[in-house]
Amino acid sequence: MSTVSKVVLGVSVVLTLSTVSAVHLNQSWDRQRLHEGVVRDLERLQKKKENLRLLEEQKILTSQLEEERRRRQTELRPQDQ
């Protein structure tokens, strides 16, 4: 085998190994990003559920406060007359 053939073979092997390694690294990074996306989605869903729960609590508290204000107003009105 001539020197040129050996150099070409060596360069081919190096380029092939580099390409295969780059593809595997890229796939690994893609899988990691996809997994992080799933985790973020789950966190968002959990936060959304918590926000909805807090909103419902606020609605209940608001209605209780409005009812209490109505009661106080009706209690105060007969005394004013």
Give a verbal description of the structure.
The chain has 81 residues and is mostly helical. Helices cover 96% and strands 0% of the residues. The protein contains 1 helix and no strands. The chain starts with a helix and ends with a helix.
Give me the number of helical elements: 1
Mean pLDDT: 94
Q: Could you list the spans in which at least 5 consecutive residues all have pLDDT below 50? A: none
Question: What is the rounded distance between the termini?
Answer: 117 Å
Order of helices and strands: H
- The secondary structure category is mainly alpha
> Percent of residues in beta strands?
under 5%
The count of DSSP E runs of length 2 or more, i.e. the number of strands, is: 0
Give helix % range.
Answer: over 70%
Report the sheet with the most strands, covering strand number, pairing sense and barrel closure: none
Task: State Rg.
Answer: 35 Å
* Apparent shape: rod-shaped
